[in-house]
Design brief:
The complex is a heterodimer of chains A (110) and B (116).
Chain A (H helix, E strand, L loop, with lengths): L8 E5 L4 E6 L8 E7 L6 E6 L4 E2 L4 E4 L5 E6 L8 E8 L12 E6 L1
Parallel strand pairs in A: 1-9
Antiparallel strand pairs in A: 2-7, 3-4, 3-8, 5-6, 6-7, 8-9
Chain B lengths: L4 E3 L2 E4 L5 E6 L6 E8 L5 E7 L2 E4 L8 E4 L6 E5 L8 E8 L10 E2 L3 E5 L1
Parallel strand pairs in B: 2-11
Antiparallel strand pairs in B: 1-3, 3-8, 4-5, 4-9, 5-6, 7-8, 9-10, 9-11
The chains are: A mainly beta (110), B mainly beta (116).
């Protein structure tokens, strides 16, 4: 069911930028790209979303490839609190389902 | 503003028993979703309510699962009778907008269900 492919795990040093990749080669024109993360023992939380253009918010940036077949979540300065599983999710309209996939487990090294 | 709450946080029951999970969405959120992660698998969508109506229940695994949202406020998910493979974490989420493709879903902490 999952429409996205992500690396199972990544590591980053604290206070360095992190680039989390996601491939979604079967994306359709109406699919939005959402990123959520799940901290240990918590439910998933929203990070960012976009359709075609790159997006920035206080948590992260989302870079979307021109052909939309891939995207990258950028954490500008990783902190220990950013250690989580990051999910890249496609959400179509008018569909309702989130396809979570396996996500990327990010480890931040002090 | 209170977030999405779920009760109980953990439930341990025996195979064949009944369990009811409850989700209280953020006040004013019309959309309510149920998801679950069974052991070692991905988080899977179960169903989506818009107010009290089931908009999409295509993810419900079988007729042992019954979800309700009477009055369009809180929701319950009943499993009857529970089987071993139902063990996992059940998440509830809510969102506000009508444009479901862009809305932000706010997740609760989950209910961990263990069926022995």
């Amino acid at each position: 069911d999952a429409k996205t492919t992500q690396p199972n795990s990544m590591e980053s040093n604290e206070e360095e930028p992190v680039h989390l990749p996601c491939n979604h080669s079967t994306i359709s024109g109406t699919d939005y790209i959402h990123w959520y993360r799940q901290l240990p023992s918590q439910g998933p939380e929203y990070v960012i979303h976009g359709l075609t253009s790159n997006v920035n918010n206080r948590m992260a940036s989302l870079a979307i490839a021109e052909d939309r077949k891939s995207s990258t979540l950028i954490l500008h300065r990783a902190t220990l609190r950013d250690a989580a599983v990051y999910y890249c999710i496609l959400r179509d309209s008018p569909g309702n389902q989130f396809y979570f996939g396996t996500g990327t487990s990010l480890t931040v090294i002090p | 503003e209170a977030g999405v709450t779920q009760f109980p946080s953990h439930s341990v029951i025996e195979k064949g028993q009944t369990v009811t999970l409850r989700c209280d969405p953020i006040s004013g959120h019309d959309n309510l979703y149920w998801y679950r992660r069974v052991m070692g698998k991905e988080i899977k969508f179960l169903l989506h309510f818009v107010k009290e109506s089931k908009q999409d229940e295509s993810g419900m695994p079988n007729n042992r699962f019954l979800a309700e949202r009477t009055g369009g406020t809180y929701s319950t998910l009943k499993v009857q009778p529970a089987e071993l493979e139902d063990s996992g974490v059940y998440f509830c989420a809510s969102s506000q907008t009508q444009r479901v493709s862009t809305d932000t879903q706010y997740f609760g902490p989950g209910t961990r269900l263990t069926v022995l």
